[in-house]
Amino acid sequence: MGRAALTLLLAAALAAAVFWSPTTVSSLTKESDEREAAGAKPGPTDLWFKIARGGRLYDNWYAEIESPPPEETHPAYPAEGKKRGADTWRCKECHGWDYMGRDGDYGSGAHYTGIKGVRGVRGIDPWLIRDIIMDETHGYTEAILPRSAVEKLALFLSLGQADMDKYIDRRTRTARGSVARGGAFFQTVCGVCHGLDGRAINFGSADDPEYVGTLARKNPWQSLHKIRCGQPGFGMVALTVLDIQYQVDILAYSQTLPTE
Ligand code: HEC
Ligand code: HEC
Q1: Rounded to whole angstroms, how far apart are CA atoms 75 and 72?
Q2: pLDDT tens figures, 39-71
Q3: In terms of Cα–Cα distance, which of 125, 124, 55, 52 is closest to 91?
Q4: Is pLDDT above 50 for 35?
Q5: Residue 260 lies in a domain
Q6: Highest-confidence range of 10-19, 61-70, 234-243, by mean pLDDT?
Q7: Which residue in 33, 37, 137, 194 is deepest, having the highest Cβ count within 10 Å?
């Protein structure tokens, strides 16, 4: 997509969204509902697809675009950090699953980098975010990350971020959602692949298994990000477009599932 087309798409999306604060995907869906009720005939769009894919790229861009993982450690990754190699190129590694960097869950522990979060760019022109991603600090040249991927990342950061602290109690790691309502979604959507108890797919190893229930308690921010955007490189659904409270309800239900 050229710059003109992107700017147009964004201008429409953002202009629509200014009425709701903060700008989110669900505010955009409300807006399109209203326009349709007013008689507008909306055509096909790939905006929602792009925002969700942007979230998967934020999680792990090389898995999502199926390119070989970088071997070197990212030049902007601090020497005192504990990670090396490919992981240090993932957006989430420096900016966190809660998008809050040093001010969030990665403010201490094995993932500490001292780098700030990306909450500050939500709602801004994705074109400006694109310039940040391609700046010298980041070094994501077109040879590393195709232009179309950078565009989707920018869309996600502008329109798709969740306010994690609002929906997850940081101290207890508990989701502020309805277990009952989340169960209805889990059993009819997630259960198709993960099984009713969330144990049909093991993300860990045979000796140290990790299931939906395990991850939901261990890292609720990572879980919510996956519920919203899907899993890079796998055909998992992305629920970005559902009202965020439903996504949080699913997380709340996931926290009741068996952990081993
Ligand atoms: C190796 C660490 C590292 C990785 C990986 C990384 N960043 Fe950054 N990012 C930084 C640093 C350092 C800054 C500058 C922070 C500052 O100005 O204090 C930054 C700033 C940003 C900002 C501006 C935030 C603001 O409010 O000013 C955005 C947006 C951003 N990064 C997006 C991304 C995206 C998207 C990715 C993945 C494609 C990514 N970053 C991967 C280190 C990283
Ligand atoms: C179409 C099948 C499918 C559906 C539907 C699905 N998933 Fe997944 N999910 C997967 C696959 C495949 C993986 C990747 C497994 C792996 O990494 O080995 C995955 C990964 C995950 C992970 C991440 C694990 C990690 O490694 O970080 C979580 C959490 C998760 N799913 C939760 C859910 C929830 C909650 C729902 C319902 C909203 C759901 N999934 C719906 C197939 C699905």
Answers
A1: 8
A2: 888 788 889 999 999 999 999 999 999 999 999
A3: 55
A4: yes
A5: no
A6: 61-70
A7: 194
- Claim to verify: residue 218 and residue 149 sit in the same structural domain: no
Q: Which domain holds residue 131?
A: 3-161
Span from the CA of 194 to the centroid of ligand 2 (angstroms): 7
Q: For the domain that residue 242 is a member of, what is the CATH number?
A: 1.10.760
Evaluate: CB of 237 within 6 angstroms of ligand 2: yes
Is ligand 1 within 6 A of the CB of residue 153? yes
Closest atom of ligand 2 to CA, residue 223: 29
Q: Is 150 exposed, middle or buried (0-12, 13-18, 19+ CB in 10 A)?
A: buried
Which of 138, 161, 184 is the C-terminal boundary of a domain?
Answer: 161
Q: Give the closest residue (by CA) to ligand 2 atom 43.
A: 236
**For ligand 1, atom 42: residue with the closest CA:** 94
Task: Compute the distance between CA of residue 183 and CA of residue 253 in angstroms, rounded to an integer.
Answer: 6
Pocket test for ligand 1, best of 77, 82, 121, 132 (most atoms within 8 A of CB): 132
pLDDT digits (tens, 9 = 90+) for 135-149: 999 999 999 999 999
Ligand 2 lined by 203 (C-beta under 6 Å)? yes
Return mean pLDDT, the chain: 91
